[in-house]
Amino acid sequence: MIKIIECPRDAMQGLHDFVPTETKKAYINKLLKVGFDTLDFGSFVSPKAIPQLRDTAEVLKGLELDERKTKLLAIVANQRGAEDASNFEEISYLGYPFSISETFQLRNTNASIAESLSRVESIQNICVKTGKKMVAYISMGFGNPYGDLWNVDVVQKWVNTLADLDIRILSLSDTIGVADSKTIEYLFSNLIPPYPDVEFGAHFHTTANTWHEKIDAAYKNGCKRFDGALKGYGGCPMAKDDLTGNMPTENLISYFDNASEKLHLDSDAFYDAMNFAVSSVFPQKTLS
Asked: What is the DSSP letter of 101?
């Protein structure tokens, strides 16, 4: 079964103007009606680092979660954030951005890879104790612009390490939009088969001309978990200024409709959420 993870957190986190808390609540409530597998809805990180999401706990209080099928995921950057997030029964997943680029790990979480691995272990322990599941994002999974060593062996090494910690959801992140079909094919075709009990995901950033080949290469090589954001809004503010956007969710839906995959999404609710995004959440953005 294909899982679509909608990422309003990723879409909003880099906006200069603060999105009012009530607007965030209204938007996420509309997304909850669509039927996505998971919403990456907020984060428990320092408000100095990501001021846009300083109201995540308050937003959570206003969500309409009765009888919902969609699960909630929150991003954390350290043990304290994981402890805060784990206090909320409504949250199913804690996501941590584990970069295999030393430079980006320092920029993104103010920690070395070694320090970050220690954080992963602590967060995983918190997840086990509190009944949460950890999602480890392998940032810079398809390459990096900093000159740090990257190759498939490096990726395999860290997949092995994280899987050995009993982390069962690993999402490869194309943080700067450099992945091409050959790289995607090679990575997923080699990483997925040895770990039948690990769910591998794809968090792609993309341009208007490369989205199809990225989805196609991942899907045809065993990936069934895909992150997206309506209209391709957002990206990582810690990466670089000319970062390409998130994978547009509407493109994911179009691809899988053509592939005859049943996503079981409410199309009316989807377009209602998209219209609200354009008019009320991201009005300053230029649409593609």
From this structure: S
Q: Report the Cα 183 to chain-centroid distance in Å.
A: 20
Question: Tokens representing 175?
Answer: 């943080």
From 90, 63, 31, 1, select the one nearest 11 (Cα to Cα). 31
Query: Are residues 221 and 258 in contact, defined by beta-carbon separation less than 8 angstroms?
Result: no
User: 166 — phi, psi (to 5°)?
Assistant: 70, 30
Q: In residues, how long is the chain?
A: 288
Cα separation, 248 vs 120, in Å, equals 29
Name residue 11's amino acid.
A
Answer for the pair 260, 180: CB distance below 8 angstroms, yes or no: no
| pTM of the full structure | 0.93
Domains of the chain and CATH, by start = 3-281 (3.20.20.70)
Helix runs in the chain, H state only: 8-12, 21-32, 56-61, 79-86, 102-109, 113-130, 152-164, 181-191, 211-219, 249-258, 267-276
Assign 3-class secondary structure to 104-129. HHHHHHCCCHHHHHHHHHHHHHHHHH
Encode pLDDT of 183-209 as tens digits.
Answer: 999 999 999 999 999 999 999 998 888
- 3-state DSSP call for residue 201? strand
pLDDT in tens, 217-270: 999 999 999 999 999 998 554 444 444 689 999 999 999 999 999 999 999 999
